[in-house]
Amino acid sequence: MPYFSEHSSLSRVFGFTSYSPAVCVEKNVEVISAAAVRLMNGCSGTFKIETNRADKQFPLTSLQINILIGRQLEEQKKLIYVRSNPQHTLKIEINQEGAYLFTETFPCGGGLPVGVEGKVLLLVEDEASVLAGILMMKRGCAIVPVSLNKEVDVSLLQKYSPFPLMLKKVRSEEEMEELAKQEKALALITGDSFDSFQKRNFSLPLFKPLMGYSEEEIKEKLMEY
Predict the structure, then answer these.
(1) Which 3 state secondary structure label does DSSP give 93?
(2) pTM (whole model) above 0.85
């Protein structure tokens, strides 16, 4: 729709369950009606309206708004109102700030905002460890990617991190533990699963979020990201 610019990056913000690009107008029924007609421009077929009137001081009820604007759309557009299974749904939210109109809702990853649960080191060894890092970010952890003296790709991790990520290379477990102190990291994350279990000798608290995943499940989960 012409009202909106690129917004798909919002779907990668953990802490959001969904978002809707919306048009905001003043709380005036004529203004809302005109905005609804513009927003549904080019649409045809069946439709319905769902109004949520959080501001109870607004003079019309949600049902009255649905009826009034529905009639306007039927008169001015090639649209037919139906109660169920519409081709288009126009949603209207009226609160203290204004009236918001939208027709689309996009799902997001949910979880917790990255960083609210502190910082952790992520030992990046393969694709599985990248998935482990994403799952820990979804649980609210900010990650510091680290490798044992090898170059690894952290671009997928950066897509979901609100903070710039820079791969830290270390040569030994001792250097990794020193890095944890410098970064004030609370734990170490690895991509170990039941099928690829490795005994680790770190003194840091160790988390393995993929331990319940099979190799096939890890591949399938990575495809979601």
Answers:
(1) strand
(2) no
